[in-house]
Specification:
It is a single chain. The mean pLDDT is 97. This protein has helices spanning 37-55, 75-85; strands at 3-8, 13-18, 21-24, 62-69, 93-98, 108-115. Helix 1 runs parallel beside helix 2 (75-85). By secondary structure, the protein is α+β, with helices and mostly antiparallel strands.
């Protein structure tokens, strides 16, 4: 099987396709860094949509998601955006946890695995 790397960098790729599966690295907001959890979450799901499309997939094929919040008290704010983005009947397995992210300006990070 071949391995396709999307957005390869020095330390990691934004996504890796192997077989019929695409693995996305944890995605963070660049344009809305330092802004609200809602704004960052929206930017991140838009990034996820674009990466999945590039890999030949879409959000209805997301198998699992791991969401990292800098402050778990923002769970509801993140979920308000997530619930509008996710397609009912195609919801992935999901874990959400509080974690210290690489910089205090990042409030959300989301990693997903999807089928193609």
């Amino acid at each position: 099987m071949t391995i396709k790397r999307i957005g390869p960098g020095v330390r990691m790729s934004k996504a890796v396709v192997h077989g019929n599966t695409v693995y996305l690295a944890g995605q963070v907001a660049d344009k809305t860094i330092g802004q609200s959890v809602s704004e960052q979450t929206q930017e991140i799901v838009d990034i996820i949509d674009a990466l999945l499309a590039e890999a030949g997939s879409d959000k209805t094929k997301v198998l699992s998601a791991t969401i990292y919040l800098a402050d778990i008290s923002t769970f509801g704010e993140m979920n308000a955006v997530w619930d509008k983005w996710v397609v009912q009947g195609h919801t992935p397995a999901r874990a959400t946890l509080e974690a210290k992210l690489v910089t205090a300006q990042y409030k959300v990070e989301i990693a997903v695995i999807a089928a193609i």
